[in-house]
Amino acid sequence: MAKLSPEEIDAALAELPGWQREEEALVKEFRFKTFREAMAFVNEVADLARRLRHHPEIVINYNRVRLRLTTHDEGGITGKDTEFARQLESSELARGRPQEQ
């Protein structure tokens, strides 16, 4: 899958609340009430990653989880990354979690 153009990335970000472009990746930080809630979210993200066969970089800092999506084989953001973010945002995860930072 080819890298997206800056215009394609901007169009995708317009539909992905809280997601931002950071160099050659899409990133978003989520904040939870407890570490346990953060870990439950990470486990759900792992299930989505397995289904999509596309794995985000995940950083956990107590009640905060930072996701970074990029397609290493292409050296940047592709449709795999925007699709992952879209599916995450449209899932029960997105509707049931606390406010993002």
Reconstruct the topology from this structure:
Layout: H1 6-14, E1 20-22, E2 25-31, H2 35-52, E3 57-61, E4 64-69, H3 79-90, H4 92-96
Helix pairs in contact: 2-3
Query: Helical segment tally?
Result: 4
CATH superfamily: Transcriptional coactivator/pterin dehydratase
Assigned CATH architecture: 2-Layer Sandwich
Q: Structural class, please? A: alpha+beta
Query: How much helix is in the residues?
Result: 40-55%
Percent strand: 15-25%
What quaternary form is this?
Answer: single chain
Number of domains: 1
Strands in their spatial order, largest beta sheet: 1-2-4-3
In CATH, the topology is named: Gyrase A, domain 2
Shape: globular
**CATH class division:** Alpha Beta
Computed Rg: 13 Å
Uncertain residue ranges: none
Question: Which sequence of SSEs, written as H and E, runs from N to C?
Answer: HEEHEEHH
Total strand segments: 4
Span of the ends, CA to CA: 31 Å
